[in-house]
Amino acid sequence: MDRTAVADVTPSGAFARKESTFRNSFDVHGPHPPERDRYVLVVSLACPWACRALSVLHLKGLENVFKVVVTHPVWARTRPEDANDAHCGWVFVKPGESIANPAGVGHFVADGRCSSSAPEDAKFVRDLYELCGAPKEQRFTVPLIWDTKARTIVNNESSEIIREMNTNFNAFSSSPERAALDLYPEALRERIDDINGWVYHRVNNGVYKCGFAVTQEAYDQAVKDLFEALDDINSILSESRYLCGDVFTEADVRLWQTLIRFDEVYVVYFKTNKKFIHQYEHISGYVRELWQMPELRAATNMDHIKTHYFASHPSLNAHAIIPIGPDVNLDAPHGREGDYPRK
């Protein structure tokens, strides 16, 4: 088996992410109806796709509906007893216990955010996929939602999970205000879908295209697309407080996950070093505003983020050295209030 998703490249050397395969919905008349205390959201606090789902869980007040299980931030061999199986991925490690990275380097202790148990007593996320008969081409990714009654994965596509949480669990939200929050309002759906489309390809996945490219040509194109997109975003945010106007939507949740990791990780690790996010006039204030939202901050853990990226891919960082990072004060006033467009 391939080592990790890093192996997913085209003949031209460009990174090509594989599609998710568990795409079920939560339907009151279906096999996975919305219920309290039935489903487990499995995440890594390092993974931007998983933290989309965790952010929406907090925004919608669903903390007492889904049990959240958090992996160790560092990947490990998922079948260490099999010399012919080189796969590395997410592992469940009890707080206080430690693991080395896939190359056997380092001593990474699980902190208090890591979960002490997992569904089905799984040791690896891979175990859950194999338990429910995942197809061979499926990568063992997070987030995923596990149905403890049906003993299967309901959905592992983050873009769908956040919409399911946005609409199908309102009866269980912690307050009427949380239930009423709509991150995908009908009047803005066309705009949201358009922004999500190009932000995904050029920014969310674009940083990975830069970092995992294996030819100069693939890297050069990915970097060009990424920074042109960031210029477009900076321009949009000079015209409106959020991506779709004066309303905070799922488009902001999705973009945020990449932006908060950019200066600390991607500039170094994925070679996106043309410009820092904190150097953009309008994006920088936008990042500070979103960081200061308690729900997004609760889903963001920079220790997990940096430890995962810099320790999990020996081909990119053989000695698992974690850089100190820039000194950016995200608690400074964001200045996003007021009239738009900006002068």
UniProtKB/TrEMBL annotation:
One of its GO terms (molecular function) is glutathione transferase activity. It comes from the Eukaryota. It holds the Pfam family GST_N_2. The active site is at residues 47, 208. Residues 174-309 form the GST C-terminal domain. CDD domains: GST_C_Omega_like. SUPFAM superfamilies: GST C-terminal domain-like, Thioredoxin-like. One of its GO terms (cellular component) is cytoplasm. InterPro entries: Glutathione-S-Trfase_C-like, Glutathione-S-Trfase_C_sf, Glutathione_S-Trfase, Glutathione_S-Trfase_N, GST_Omega-like_C, GST_Omega/GSH, Thioredoxin-like_sf. Glutathione binds at residues 90, 139-142, 157-158. The record marks 266, 309 as: Lowers pKa of active site Cys. PANTHER family: GLUTATHIONE S-TRANSFERASE OMEGA-LIKE 1-RELATED, GLUTATHIONYL-HYDROQUINONE REDUCTASE. This is Thioredoxin-like fold. It comes from Ostreococcus tauri (Marine green alga).
